Amino acid sequence: MRLALLCIVGVVQFGLCVRPLIEFEYQPRWVAAAAFTALALVTAACAVWVMRRKPMPAAVVVLGTAVTLAASAGATRVLPPGGHFGTPDWSIGLVGWHLLLLLLDRAPALLAAMAAHLTASVGQFMLSGVHDRAEIGAAGIVAFGTAGIQLAVVPISRMLHHRTRQAMSVAAEQDRLITRVMAAEQWEREQRTVFAGQLGVTLPLLADLADGVLDPRDDDTRRRCSLAATQLRRLFAENDEVPDPLVHEVTACVDEAERRGVEVSLAVSGAAVAVPPDVRRELTSPVVATLAAARSQARVSVLRTHEDVRVAVMADVDIDVVTPISAQVVVDCDTYGEHVRMEARWLTTNS
Amino acid sequence: MADDEQLSAVIVDDHPAVLAGVAHWLSSGTPPIRVAASGHDVRVAWLGEGAQADVVILDLHLGGPTPVMGELRRLVEAGRRVVVYSMRADDAIALQCLELGALSYLTKAEGTEHLLKATRAAAAGQAYTAPSLAGALAGDRSAHRPVLSARETEVLIQWFQSQSKEFVAQRLGISSSTVNSHLEHIRVKYAMRGRAAPTKAMLVARAIQDGLIQLDDL
Question: The domain containing residue A66 runs over which residues?
């Protein structure tokens, strides 16, 4: 907006005002030339800040306004007779643009300066002699015409500011939305990867069954299927909203074993404590592995003491159970005859 | 009170099938335990033959949602040896029953073997710690719980996890009788705190006699 005003000031001063300055007789001429130069200097001074798009310091504004008003008074003073508000009065419109350029953000000061400028011009016009009605009318039209156009710039500029702010906030909101959408997409991709990882042995098993590589009648295939089924049941239970997620997940594993005809006794003791999901996964993986291998009987227990959480399973198994590798829990595995005992222990005091 | 030849028990439970089942288990044990009386009301333990029975086998939920803790307390205060036999595996209630002076707390998931052992132990004035109760003791996080040694805690946990004393003994490298004495010692420690009850005093006195604890421990 200021840049546009700067251009207007330049065009008006050098395009429209130079001609009357040369054509008409000003008494003395050097005052008019000095006024013109002073106004040109004010424009140049303003340009320093406007081009850098920085607000003008208050001192510059005050000085500029004073110089402008003084130049205006000087230029009007030396007008040839009958020149007021006419073609020789080059400064009457130009000064208003200068004041706008200087005081666009300071509306009350702008109004006061404009009023001072017009009052001074009208005063000098009245003092310059007796005028008929036509002259007064013409002067009034010029004065109100220029001032009206110039003052209209103020609300236009305000509206533009307002619209700019709105547009910027809408753009910022859109940016935020786009970021959120991208974050959600990333999360979804990660969830898919995590889920595919958690499916464990299921995917290769299904692929082998589909390819006919594995025989469903084979005992080993059945054991792998039961392991996959137990892993899936635990996985489905993982995100359920329940008061005691650990016991809920262990119960899901026990359910799956019972469906296969294994007689499982489940015991839970100690008040529930909060266990992070990844620790729950590690605590339950020995249960998954052992129950999937259990032949006919199993004992599963969950115990929460004042210092640890222990999930243990004892079962009769025919095959070797692979001890799951865990980062956060201690897994202990022993074999007693055909019984395997596996215990995962998580120290609550470490967390 | 005790019959020289045969132990006797009174069964209080609101389910007829449980009454019949428990009566069958007791009478078919070796040696058999005589069922002096049975019924769905705790009155059978106070009147008639039931009043003379060595052991009271008490269900905590007699037709209502609230456990009959008051009845348990009155029986224990009268010097009766009570085995609590409950549908629910609730640690807090199990610990509360011990606090009141019950000699055993069994859940109905624990079958004939534990019930017979608990009944015989109770008839002799001894405590019996079944696996579910061991879990409740191991998971006890109350401020006033007795201090257990690391070995005692391990015995409780292994017994809870495996339900087999042979397994506990093998795993910890001790004999089965040592496992039992650890469990007894733990129960004596629990008996020595909280409110007084004749059965608890009996446990402590017996522990001193057996040299399980010293007078200084009191």
Answer: 2-168
CATH architecture of B8-217: 3-Layer(aba) Sandwich (3.40)
| Model pLDDT, residue B4 | 53
Interface check A267 vs B, CB under 8 A: yes
Q: What is the CATH number of the domain that holds A211?
A: 3.30.565.10
pLDDT in tens, A234-263: 888 888 889 999 999 999 999 999 998 999
pLDDT digits (tens, 9 = 90+) for A92-101: 888 888 888 8
Judge whether B51 is closer than 8 Å to chain A, CB to CB.
no
B195 within 8 A of B144, measured Cβ to Cβ = no
b vs e for A138-168, b when ≥16 Cβ sit within 10 Å of the residue's Cβ?
ebeebbeebbeebbebbeebeeeeeeeeeee
- Helices B176-191, B150-162: axis angle to 10 degrees equals 110
Q: How far apart are CA A296 and CA A298, in angstroms?
A: 7
Query: Do the Cβ atoms of B132 and A314 come within 8 Å?
Result: no
Question: Which of the residues B91, B95, B162 would you substitute to probe the A interface, choosing the one with the greatest number of A C-beta atoms within 10 Å?
Answer: B162
Inter-chain CB proximity A341 and B167 less than 8 Å: yes
Nearest chain B alpha carbon to A308: B139
Residue A185 lies in a domain: no
User: Domain check: are A84 and A134 in the same one?
Assistant: yes
- Of the partner residues B89, B139, B162, the one whose CB lies closest to the CB of residue A314: B162
